[in-house]
Design a protein that fits this description.
alpha+beta, elongated
Length: 74
């Protein structure tokens, strides 16, 4: 699971800009991850959150060990 800085900033900004009719909501914020276990559909519906970054494109993947944690340097 990964939440990029850009997606985190968008989630925070959209939360701040949400209309007062939203009231209170608990929303998951994650980037586009193929291994994502949390549903972010409610964040899309309530505050129009759309992921911009894809974990598979910003992480180095080591298939021989199954690790996915080191950030890639473009």
């Amino acid at each position: 699971m990964m939440l990029s800085h850009r997606d985190a900033a968008q989630l925070i900004q959209r939360s701040i800009d949400a209309p007062s009719s939203v009231g209170y909501a608990v929303l998951y914020g994650m980037s586009k991850n193929s291994l994502r276990i949390h549903d972010i559909e409610s964040a899309r519906e309530i505050i129009d959150y759309e992921t911009q970054d894809d974990a598979s494109k910003v992480l180095d993947i080591y298939p021989e060990t199954g690790t996915y944690y080191r950030l890639a340097h473009p």
